[in-house]
Amino acid sequence: MLKVEDNELLTRVGPRTPMGEMLREYWMPACRSASLVADGAPRRVRLMGENFVAYRVTDGGAAFAYEACPHRGASMALARNENNGLRCIFHGWKIGANGRIVDCPAEPADTREAFAARLKVGFFPTREAGGMVWVYLGKQSSPPPFPEFEFNNLPDSHVCARRGLVNYNWLQGLEAHIDASHVGILHSGFLNIGKKTAIDARDLGMATANKAPKTEMHVTDYGLREGALRDQGNGTTYARIREIALPFFTFIPHAASEPCSGRATVPVDDEWDAEWYILYDTEKPLTQEAINLLFEGTADDPDNFASNMGNSGNMWNQDRKAMSWHFSGFPRSIPFEDFIIQESMGTRMDRSGEQLGRGDVILVQVRRMLLEAVRGWREGKPAPWNVSREQYRGIRAIATTIPTDMKWTDVNAAEVMRKQAAE
Ligand code: FES
Ligand SMILES: [Fe+2]
């Protein structure tokens, strides 16, 4: 459980909140690269409790600005996107991609330039990688190192990133992704479905057969690694090794033969969250089959694949009849099972009444780390977990069998996958 004030500290992300200010010190995915067209319509993006627009300039780069025009607040989502900048359709002020006002035609010609030079406009550095437009919303004069996760350095054909918009606070999203003990229970219905699913059948079978794995953790510079360990009684252990790159990213254990799977849980505001599902293959292009397996049953819209999920008003279309053969009654989609459970807890859950058990140790650890970081931030310490390019690139999750006398922390996921590919 969390004290009410600690829950507030962790879950409030708007401007001038301690967590909101700290989280702005990390690069975060804002929208899909493919959703922006050069000189095309600006796209509204709500992030961290504020409204922005993302757009692609004439020269091809992605740019990011506040949605409100710096003159009198008209929406820049309505603006003309022309000649490397956004021109407000109200009085014609034009913001260049560099965050400067380059024209204000309703001002007298002789003072126009000097006036424009004095104006303050929000400027936010962007990067494009992994099929996503990333933005830095923080206050430092130079942004932190870009998170060079493996998926950010692959050809487009090797990565598929889609976003789901869900009605819960970002911390619920993160807590769902780091929670190993629900896998063999909430998702167990997919064992009975009689066809291939996004979770490898053997992996899901292992998780379902032993619902209370021994959970160990190992704190790292970027967050932590979690090992969910199931002793198989024959000198081997089934190890599901999850990577958590705080504050936003989780890498989900998967069979060595399957593509890798990352998640980012990025605050839209205190009550909405952007769930990024990032499927990637480091060696070869992703197959359409692998993409379909992960997103089966979800909406076709890659900018919001959760748009057909339902809501609390219709109980997310839970199929009570299906519960005779499917555990949760949500046989449509594995990601939706996770989203629905989080929405069912309330948009910003009150953690003061929780009663946690041994299966929740990772959650307790991550909350402790987040609290320590945000308290430190409040006292002037730098935001933790920004690491080197090499460290980011070394992050990969895996589910595999190891000799029981081997330490799970010595498992190298890339090596396990290479061996499997060679067999
Ligand atoms: S409100 Fe945009 S130019 Fe006046
Ligand atoms: Fe899950």
Structure description:
With 423 residues, the chain is an alpha+beta fold. It folds into 2 domains: 108 residues, 3-layer Sandwich (Rieske Iron-sulfur Protein); 273 residues, Naphthalene 1,2-dioxygenase Alpha Subunit, Chain A, domain 1, CATH 3.90.380.10. Helices cover 23% and strands 23% of the residues. It is built from 11 helices and 18 strands. The site of fe (ii) ion has 5 residues, from helix 5.
Structure described in brief:
By secondary structure, the protein is an alpha+beta fold. The chain has eleven helices and 18 strands. Fe (ii) ion binds next to helix 5.
In the CATH hierarchy, what is the superfamily of the largest domain? Answer: Naphthalene 1,2-dioxygenase Alpha Subunit, Chain A, domain 1
Based on Cα principal axes, name the global outline: globular
Shape-level CATH architecture of the largest domain: Alpha-Beta Complex
Query: What's the story with the biggest beta sheet?
Result: 8 strands, antiparallel
Structural class: alpha+beta
Q: State the separation between the terminal residues, measured CA to CA.
A: 46 Å
State the helix count.
Answer: 11
Which cofactor or ligand species appear? FE2/S2 (inorganic) cluster, fe (ii) ion
